[in-house]
């Protein structure tokens, strides 16, 4: 733990909280230079509060992203990978669950920055102003 962030080396898997572990927040790239991972304490705390109110699991589809992975996603035309990402800062997660409507409601109670997709919900720590946007996919 350091400066408000959990830090670990990619490939390590240990608990961050009751419901979440490092493996699900690790960068999904194949870059050999991507080792150091991080995620904000506050993000985990807020996601934990959301998860406690859900009746089923909350799955992280994207947590931390290294800069190279962000560039790769952007080059492939990924709508969610434009510019400097909160994922690169360790301050964002894309999440899904069985009850997406309830997830949206609970997410709006904990987060001011929310991206809505048909397939996932992007939650990040930007604030205090409310930021909402909608992905085409």
Written description of the protein model:
The protein starts with a strand and ends with a strand. A hairpin with a 4-residue loop joins strand 5 (113-116) and strand 6 (121-124). The protein is α+β, with helices and mostly antiparallel strands and 137 residues long. It has 4 helices and 7 strands. 27% of the residues lie in helices and 23% in strands.
Beta strand count: 7
Q: In percent, how helical is the residue content? A: 25-40%
SS-derived structural category: alpha+beta
- Number of H- or I-type helical stretches: 4
Give the CA-based shape: globular
- Beta-strand content: 15-25%
Name the helix and strand elements from N-terminus to C-terminus, one letter apiece: EHEHEHEHEEE
Read across the widest sheet, the strand sequence of neighbours is 3-4-6-5-7
- End-to-end separation in angstroms reads 35 Å
Largest sheet: 5 strands, mixed
The oligomeric status of these chains comes to single chain
Q: Summarize model confidence as the mean pLDDT.
A: 92
Rg of Cα set: 14 Å
User: Which spans of ≥5 residues are poorly predicted at pLDDT below 50?
Assistant: none
């Amino acid at each position: 733990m350091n400066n408000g962030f959990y830090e670990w080396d990619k490939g390590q898997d240990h608990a961050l909280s009751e419901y979440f572990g490092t493996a699900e927040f690790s960068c999904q790239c194949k870059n050999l230079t991507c080792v150091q991972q991080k995620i904000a304490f506050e993000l985990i705390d807020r996601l934990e509060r959301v998860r406690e109110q859900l009746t089923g699991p909350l799955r992280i589809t994207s947590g931390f992203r290294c800069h190279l992975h962000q560039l790769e996603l952007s080059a492939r035309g990924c709508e969610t990978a434009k510019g400097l990402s909160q994922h690169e800062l360790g301050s964002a997660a894309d999440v899904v669950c069985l009850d997406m409507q309830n997830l949206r409601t609970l997410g709006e109670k904990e987060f001011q920055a929310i991206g809505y997709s048909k397939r996932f919900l992007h939650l990040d720590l930007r604030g205090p102003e409310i930021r909402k946007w909608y992905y085409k996919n």
